[in-house]
Amino acid sequence: MNKILAFLITIFLVLGMSFSYAKEETDEAQDQGGVTPDSAFYGLDRAFERLSLLITLNKAEKAKKGLEHARERIEEAKKVAREGKVEHLEKLKEEHKKSL
């Protein structure tokens, strides 16, 4: 059972790092803010953030990640506001609160 759990965690980490790397490349090419709620990949992005927090055991590192996620929600809110997609702002506001 422990081997299966370790294998699954490893798979999630590899996928998470791959997605994170691809996201960084995409962010550099796009405006600040990354994936926004109107994207099909938004749920996947948020799932990897939650997984990352789940496997982070150090409280200080977990707090740093939470702040990074909160900062990302702000950038996403700025991006959707610039694009006139204000219907997503309330969702981003709530997710920002959760990240803090």
Task: Provide the structure class.
Answer: mainly alpha
What form results from the Cα inertia axes? elongated
Question: How confident is the prediction overall: mean pLDDT?
Answer: 81
Counting DSSP E segments of at least 2 residues, the number of strands comes to: 0
Instruction: Encode the helix/strand succession as letters.
Output: HHHH
Give me some keywords for this one:
single chain, 100 residues, mainly alpha, 77% helix, elongated
Task: Give a description of the structure.
This protein has 100 residues and is mainly α. 77% of the residues lie in helices and 0% in strands. It contains four helices and no strands. Helix 1 packs across helix 2 and helix 3 packs antiparallel against helix 4. The chain is elongated, with a radius of gyration of 15 Å. It starts with a helix and ends with a helix. About 5% of the residues have low confidence.
